[in-house]
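Morning!

This is the sequence you dropped in the shared folder:
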Amino acid sequence: MARSRPGERGRSRAKRGAHASAAQLTLSDWQRTQAEPHAPSPEPPPPSRSPLDAESGSDVDRLAKALAPRLADELSVRMRASAGEPAATARLLTLDELVAQLPSGKRPQTWKRWLYERTRRGEVPGCVKLGGMLFFEREPALAWLRAGAASTR
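The structure's back. Tokens below.
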């Protein structure tokens, strides 16, 4: 912060105070406006036609009219194409989902510790860490479990 001379410091505050008080409404201003009788508001104007409805609109309106059907067609094609594909995250298993695939002879917490240790060693294929959480690619992780959870090294 830049230092100012003692005399200037007071003057700059005074200037700011003068500008701020001129633009800022006070409680008494608000009370005065509330006490004044209000004239009834005029009838709202009739709704005007949309700029897109006008025959002779601006260039932007004509461009929007021309692009709208094309955009709708493109979006419908893309939505149909993506509906047939599974989401990218559907291929990922959470740690709890992978633990559910393991034998129930041990407690889930034991299996979680076991999996954390294996992932630290890099033994679990398809392990992905997102935001501090572990996820596993479905096919490689399940294939690793089916193979007896053998080391991939």
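Headline: The beta strands are 92-94, 127-130, 133-137.

More detail when I'm at my desk.
O.
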